[in-house]
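pipeline/complex-builder :: batch 7 item 3
reading input block
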Amino acid sequence: MRPATAVLMVGLPGAGKTTRARHLEQHLPALRLSPDEWMTPLYGDLFSDLVGDPQAAGKRDVLEGRLLWTALRAAEQGLNVIIDFGLWAREERHALHQLFTAVGARCRTEYLAVDPHTQLARVRARAARTPGQAFALSAQDLARWREDFEEPTAEELAGALPPAAPPPHRSWAAWAAARWPSLCDTHADSIG
Ligand SMILES: Nc1ncnc2c1ncn2[C@@H]1O[C@H](COP(=O)(O)OP(=O)(O)OP(=O)(O)O)[C@@H](O)[C@H]1O
Ligand SMILES: [Mg+2]
């Protein structure tokens, strides 16, 4: 069986991740997992977590954990997967790289960079085109989030092996289980 490819889509809002992921979905082909497409059907709201509803933020984490659980099982069966989460934190990317590699997949990161001016124009145009589905993010929100975003390094983009997981986590799997508690298989003690 050919090893699956797992693609981690990385970038800020409006960078073009989902657009690129839809292209890859057709051309790899691959199972694309974009949480935004699940939030509204499941919870009736895509963005409440972004404006400070702690319960909604938890919902997105639960959803992402289950999507990752699905993606890891699919990749283990040889199916290509696209993780369209944004993955702002380097540790998230390290953990997923480790987890997908552990199930026999090749993991790569696709980083979509976007300059602030283009980003603002895109999110405004998207909000105008799809009212109710896309949020009119302010320039201030975007500037603040840009500071939180950990840009992938050249090593990461070249597919370098992640460093050891940070203490107290004994592995990246343990780190991931803390970050996304619903990733744990409820029928097993651990994900590895
Ligand atoms: N390469 C591009 N050139 C011009 N416009 C683009 C490009 N990529 C995406 N867009 C447009 O920018 C907007 C945002 O793109 P997209 O939804 O793919 O971003 P995203 O990174 O998934 O954002 P989010 O994190 O908010 O989900 C869309 O309206 C899309 O049509
Ligand atoms: Mg998107």
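note: DSSP finds eight helices and four strands in the chain.
queue -> next item
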